[in-house]
Fold:
Amino acid sequence: MKTVNHWIGGKTVEGASGNWGQVTDPATGAVTTRVALASPEEVDAAVTAAKAAYGTWGTSSLSARTGILFSYRALLDAHRDEIAALITAEHGKVHSDALGEVARGLEIVELACGITTQLKGELSTQVSSKVDVSSIRQPLGVVAGITPFNFPAMVPMWMFPLAIACGNTFVLKPSEKDPSAANLLAELAAEAGLPDGVLNVVHGDKVAVDSLLAHPDVAAVSFVGSTPIARHIHATASANGKRVQALGGAKNHMLVLPDADLDAAADAAVSAAYGSAGERCMAISAVVAVGAIGDELVSKIRERAEKIKIGPGTDPASEMGPLITAAHRDKVASYVTGAAAQGAEVVLDGTGLRVDGYEDGHWIGLSLLDHVSTDSDAYRDEIFGPVLCVLRTETYDEGVALMNASPFGNGTAIFTRDGGAARRFQLEIEAGMVGVNVPIPVPVGYHSFGGWKDSLFGDHHIYGNDGVHFYTRGKVVTTRWPDPADAPSGVDLGFPRNH
Ligand code: NAD
Structure:
């Protein structure tokens, strides 16, 4: 069995707490790896290493930092397949999907390579007589990142490349369910020349997380995960005086208007609902069909969903892999088996799927629930599996009202040929990321990612300009260089005014 240890101060540090987690290959159900679960003392060792490294990294030149990031980008590019293979082995998603995850993470490394332009300050000359004012942004110190299982490489890369480009040092606590990719990311960063201690990885569970939240030397915390934990992280880190961004769960809706291209809408719904077996925070989990198109749309979705090939992520023919754990698979199945009793029509039932040769994998097929009511469990909860709910409304206004009543506000999409309706939707919908005829509107690296309402706690979205702001703090410098020929200064107790 493989062992995943911590990466602290530029080297592997063996887990010493005596506590280990088990990592399973979701396709076979076999335990393949044990992962160290850090004690508070091990978390402290990582923060101490990061604090020591900050002494020189925080004041290193921009060209030194970007030089390393460019080398890092090249190494990541060369190791795409290896990273993707680790993701598939522990998460279960198919290899092509894992490669997509690596590519989207690389976008943020590329953004970080250009940190020179993002960290440029501002200068106003002569704001008052012989007085200039400049605004600069400086790093925070040691920052922590806590990440979910569903993107074991991309979500860490949403955080640490920008954080370290800004001059911070970083402690990453990845998901204990699929920890290996994080270590490879850190090892490649060291190979690229990143000084020891700038990027550290501690593995663990709630004990490690709560130690980071309480640690006096952690200045800020980035979190991505489920809503209840995001709420806990935001409340606890804030109470401990830290800056915090905590991205939570989702229930993303897609509104389909009667004039939409229904084939394109059905393609998009199937891709976004069932890609990565629905284990995406930007998955479409509810389609709202407006007007009389409901039956036709459901039949087009069904036709497409029935053709999806399910199998191990290592098989190039597979389009959808297994779920992360057997317990999660059983929970997802319970929503499907309970749906009919709560009024839904079960158009496709994916429960009970077996995959030949992989009988112990965490399999579930695609499920499609029609006429789902807004007070049913399948609608209200984030299922995080391959289950798509369809709801019907008579009008656009009813559709938007239904969607805005959701406590979540991560991503959303509208499918229509009507530009005016799409424009109204952009302004009226209560969500942080909107797609117009685009099913998974995950913003590119140079725009920021973040939801509204219970999908994000804190002020800053992640990466893009918000990421740079989150990982730096502003300072305004007001300067006066008196001329020897100036009149002598004098005492003036009045509040200073500009003149
Ligand atoms: P999770 O909340 O269970 O775990 C996330 C992290 O928190 C992990 O590192 C885990 O070890 C830690 N954690 C778990 N329980 C904890 C506790 N009680 N106290 C302290 N730390 C704890 O999430 P997950 O199951 O790994 O990931 C799936 C969730 O993440 C879904 O809800 C999904 O929508 C969400 N997600 C959101 C986004 C986004 O951008 N908004 C992106 C990806 C995933």
About this structure: The chain is about 35% helix and 20% strand. The mean pLDDT is 97.
